[in-house]
Structure formats: structure tokens, C-alpha cells
Amino acid sequence: MKLYNTLTRKKEEFKPIKDNEVTMYVCGPTVYDYIHVGNARPMVVFDTLRRFFIYKGYDVKYVVNFTDVDDKIIKKANTERVTVKDISEKYIDAYMESAKALNVYEENTIHPKATEFIKNMIEFIEGLIDKGAAYNVDGNVYFNIEIAKDYGKLSKKNIEDLISGARVDINEEKRNPMDFALWKKAKEGEPSWDSPWGKGRPGWHIECSVMAKSILGDTIDIHAGGEDLQFPHHENEIAQSETLTEKPFANYWLHNGMLTIDNQKMSKSLGNFFTVKDISKEFDLEVLRFFLLSVHYRNPINFSRDVMGQLKNGLERLYNGKSNLEYLLDKALDKELDEAEKEKLKEIDKYKSYFIKSMEDDLNTADAIASLFEIVKFANTNFNENTPKFMIQYTYEILIELSNILGILSRKEELLEEEILKLIEKRTQARKDKNYKLADEIRDELNKKGIVLEDTQEGVKWKRI
Ligand SMILES: [Zn+2]
């Protein structure tokens, strides 16, 4: 498999450190608000890469951190007169809900919180001080970038240019304007932890270095995130980690391109800022997942209602192809394949290998999706009720197997709202009649179809899961 490595600016053959394991660290959100549609891109893209590795037989250790202490969280907590923990927990829950609706493989994700690793961060910073790579000024600890080898190697920035271009504050206590905070001295009313330098809290960059090292080890296979994180965040992570361990921090650095809305940068001031929650009111989030995979992950992607509408139709075409195959499977008879049919079957293998080849070429999901459409087209034109069952089964299984890699076509048979309400009515009547057995059966039937009932004082409420 080839992956484009930002560190070398080349597509490279992917070789994991261990033969059968891949370690991945994807920078996660600062939990002070609902995630926006741009945040959803790395979630979906790198989840798809993970799914592909699993498909290829690797054991994947996949970490997405939560930054749960930060200026923005503190500010929001103060405005809303609640604790920092209240804010971070609320938005972690919201993140998990969106991630599940986007079919991100959450059961397989490790989600460390920065506040759970403070001890490790302090140890890490002490290590850097011992090496002369960090210094304490009155309770603030800074990383000295002049000690780091090859600072700027990821973002290809020149250290001299950076220094001359940096804004220097009059009260600057840093030795070099590009030095960055590892530990920040506590201010009044902020959450803080005891440290050898007094009460304080960690800087943002140190969190990822420490959580990656603590959970995945000194060197990881893949570090990933949005292209906007290359500098300074990832550059600083490399500087800290490699100075401390004297080993490469990550062998492959992957970055996804940025998302625009109607060809404009998304911003609250332009009024084109959409959270994933907003989108979910208009579209099933599977459409958003499909949209995010419809363009190669390193290219920019433009979100618009028109494009989402087209992708919604495209996804429906795939679902129709899937249900046609299911219908034929029910009808088809077991019979031997003739020579012509055996030949035909090879076409399906060809589409499958094209799918896999596309995925192996730096995760080209756009081309992989094209193969799914080819499979459905092939089935629609060639199969009918006289087609041998084996052929239909074979095609169906490949369609499902490949769709699972992309995390799509997993929607369960959906009941219409009308049907749900009828069943709820029937259950209410059964309960009135004290026919609890029937009432329970109806509840179970709904559960199986992804509908959960809740008995409240205002009556029965239902939701899809
Ligand atoms: Zn990070």
C-alpha cells in the first residue's frame, strides 16, 4: 500500500513497525463546541484508512485524543457559569453521538483525555528540561526550538524566516520568539495541577506528544490530522518528542485537505458555518460520510447542498442495487454456472481488484466508489430471476465487503414513521388489555429494526438508534 507522507512529500510504500499491527494517532477536537463539518473530514477519512488496514488483516491501535482543558473551554465555562468539566463532558458526548452517526468505528477507538495524562506530561517536560531543551520562567515552561534538530522539517519552513517574521511582545519572557509553552502558569479561576514549577496546566502541543507516547510508544506508524495542523502543532509535536526520545516520532504523517462551503472558507462571520448536528437535520449523516469520501482526501473538498443532494441520490442507487440483489437472492435457484456465466463472474473480480488497487494508491476512495457503482450497474444489467444463486450471492457479498471498508450501505431496513406509530398504538392497546406478552413482542420487533421506545408521562416516545 502506498501513502503520501507529508514528511517526505512523496507517496511511499507503507511498512508498519510490526508486521501485523498498525498504530495510528489522529489529532482530536478541543471539546468546547459541537464539531463542524470540516472536523468530520479527518474523522471519516482516517476511520476509512483504519477499516482498510483491518480488512487487510492488521490489528489497528487507533487513538483520537480529546483536549479537555484549554482557553476556549475555560472561557465558555465562565460565560455559562458551569465547570470546565461540564463543558468538556457535554461536547465529548456530542462528539461521540456525531461519530456514531457518521459510522466511525468507535468500538475500536481509544479516546484519551488530556487531563488524564497530566502526570505523564510533567515527566515528559522534566525530561526536556534535563536535556536543556526546555526552561522555566516564573512558572511558565517553554520549549527551546534551537535545540530541536531540523525544526521545520514537516512543514518545510525555514527557522530563520520564522524567527524574523515572528511578532515579539515587549514583555516577552521567551528566549526565542518561536519557543512555545509546554506548561502554563495558573491564572486565577482556572483549573490547575501541581507541578515542580508551581500550579499550572499543559500547553496544547505537549498533550498529543505525551498521549501518543504513553499509549502507542515512542515511535508510531501514522500520525494524522487536518492540513492546518502541520504548523505549528505537528511541527512542535515532532520537536518535543524527537528531542526527548531521540527516535522518529511518526514514520508517516498524513494530512487531509481543507473543506470549503460554497467555495468559501467556512466561518461564523460569513454565516456559512455548519455543525455536523445542523447537517443531520437535513441529511442522513451517511450521506455526509459518502460525500467526504467522494473526493481524494488530500484534495480540497467543497460542501454545498447541491453536491450533497447528488450524493444522496448516488447512495440511494447503491442501496437500490443492494436491495435488488437481496430480492433476487430470495428468488434465485441453485444451479450450475455455464461457461458464459463463469466468464461474467470474472468481471466482478475485476471491479473488486480495481477497488482494492484504488484504496492501496494513497486511499483513493473516489475511484473505489466508482467500482461500487460498476458492480451495481453490472448486476442490474446482467442478473435476473434465472441467474444462478451462486452468482448473485458472490456479487452481493463483494458489494457488502467493499462497502464495509468505506463504512457505507450499513443502514438497516427502515420502518416508515407511519408504520412505527401504528405499532406503538398496537402496543399501547395490548398493554391496556394486559396482554404484556404481545406488548413486549412489539417492543422487541421495533428494537430489532433500530427503534427504541421510551414510556414517559406524556406517552410513548421513540427514536432511531
Ligand atoms: Zn495533536
3D structure, described in words:
The strands form 5 sheets. A 5-stranded parallel sheet has the order 5-4-3-10-11, sandwiched between helices. Helix 4 crosses helix 6 (204-216), helix 6 packs across helix 7 (230-245) and helix 10 runs antiparallel to helix 13. The protein is built from 15 helices and 16 strands. The mean pLDDT is 94. It is globular. The protein is α/β, with parallel strands linked by helices and 465 residues long. The protein has helices at 37-55, 71-80, 84-101, 118-130, 159-165, 204-216, 230-245, 276-282, 285-293, 305-331, 339-360, 365-382, 389-406, 417-432, 436-448, and strands spanning 2-5, 10-13, 21-26, 59-64, 109-110, 134-137, 140-143, 180-185, 200-202, 220-226, 250-256, 259-261, 264-265, 301-303, 451-456, 459-464. The structure holds zinc ion. Residues 27, 208, 233 line the site of zinc ion (ZN).
Distinct helical segment count: 15
Low-confidence stretches: none
Which sheet architecture does the biggest sheet show? 5 strands, parallel
Question: How large is the share of residues in beta strands?
Answer: 15-25%
Strands, total number: 16
- Cα radius of gyration in angstroms: 26 Å
Structural category is: alpha/beta
What distance lies between the first and last C-alpha atoms, to the nearest angstrom?
35 Å
Numbering strands along the chain, what is their spatial order in the largest sheet?
A: 5-4-3-10-11
The geometry reads as globular
Q: What percent of residues adopt helix (DSSP H or I)?
A: 40-55%
Estimate the mean pLDDT confidence: 94
Bound heterogens, unique: zinc ion
Oligomeric grouping of the chains: single chain
